[in-house]
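Just wondering, does anyone understand these tokens?
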Amino acid sequence: MFEVGMTLQLEQDGVEGTYKCRVCELEDDKVLIDYPIHQKTGKSIFLINGTRLKVSFVLKDQTVLECKTDVVGRRMAEIPLIELERPSEEEFQRIQRRHFVRIEAPVDISLKTEGNQIVTVTEDISAGGCALILKEDAGIREEEEVELFLVLPLQKANQYLELKGRVSRIWEKDRRKLASIEFIAPDEAHKRHIMRFCFEKQLDHRKKGFA
């Protein structure tokens, strides 16, 4: 299930937020990762032996797998590595991806990659992802992981969301360049805000006679 170079998302009981790391080496009984980075603060976390972690990752066919593992050691290589116990295939769980209502709506959004930052608007959005309008020289690639910052104009107040995403497709529509972004493991609060926004937009369309 694991592959060298794969990005993992880690969660630790009692610690707020999620961490991202990369699989650097694989052994029969161990997965060696680089030091995990908090997805919001950008700070690394120190994990002691015995720390219990929930690990999730997305396969190439977009299947999400989840498992539990423990920190079993550290190792010095070209970079410091953390050793995780390698779960058996029977320990992996497939996470069902829900189909969310998608609406066409312009939402202000900032997209950040390792060497680029783009400010644009969405073409459409759902709690599972969105499509962005791009300039021709946007410089992003399919399968690239990105950081997203959205401003959701809800009726009560604006909501500011920070999300992780993956560029699943770059395409054209009506002579415009678009990128489809799949959100990576958004938390439940973020999904609720986006679903609320979609619901409010649907109601607004019905009131105007568009639905």
Remarks:
- The first strand starts at residue 7 and ends at 12.
- The first helix runs from residue 188 to 207.
- The mean pLDDT is 87.
